[in-house]
């Protein structure tokens, strides 16, 4: 896991967007996994800016979103399809048919979930999966206790998630109880994962994810088993990490390597 602690939430968003943009420029037909919620908003705003001002081209990009509330249609203003349209897709040149969000109104959920997995496989798998994290340590809607091998399926939201998301709905009663979500196993198959978190309310979940044991009680901790994960944090979200100094050292060494300053790393001094 590569842990990068930035000075501010804005810097996390800018760096996250830069990372996604560089993949899109390198591989214009890449497959991105996308998230909703408060955390990726700044990333999407920056991608829209890059599209407008720097010609970032999404015309051949394919996307798969992590999850959708059951019962909400695409025009419901709290559905994740609506979120993606209004916060990203409507402002860039992506082909609508290349954007995928689970259908919260599917009648045969099992068949729909199987088909969603198949579509990901048919597209060649997800190259880069963007993730947020719940205060209970969930990724997508894989609540504590979810199998670490789980696939796209129906999931009951935890009380903590319902309370956290009530801010978007006005009250807890209005938050849907069920969601369709990619599984932890689905997420672990992405070639690369970028998890971003901002704010001190995420600090405990981040500490467990990065420095705790791998456990289904904190599904984000399964990312420790993935070979290519970047965790982008602001200082508040990284505030509980014990090995923060070490993560900063790793970043400094990476920068020196990338800029070719090998002597500063003791390479070629003898
Ligand atoms: C959203 C998702 C969730 C959120 C998480 C954090 O698609 O999969 O796991 O990433 O609940 O939400 P925010 O960013 O609103 O704190």
Structural write-up:
By secondary structure, this protein is of the alpha/beta class. The chain has one domain: 3-Layer(aba) Sandwich (Rossmann fold). Helices cover 35% and strands 16% of the residues. The chain contains 8 helices and 10 strands. The protein has helices spanning 9-26, 41-54, 80-87, 109-122, 159-169, 184-188, 203-211, 244-258; strands at residues 2-6, 31-34, 62-65, 67-69, 99-100, 128-131, 153-156, 178-181, 192-197, 229-234. The strands form 2 sheets. Strands 1-10-9-6-2-3-5 form a 7-stranded parallel β-sheet. Strands 4-8-7 form a 3-stranded antiparallel β-sheet. Helix 1 (9-26) crosses helix 2 (41-54). The longest helix has 18 residues, at 9-26. The chain is globular, with a radius of gyration of 19 Å. The mean pLDDT is 97. Residues 35-39, 66-67, 132-134, 138-140 line the site of fructose -6-phosphate. Fructose -6-phosphate binds at residues 35-39, 66-67, 132-134, 138-140.
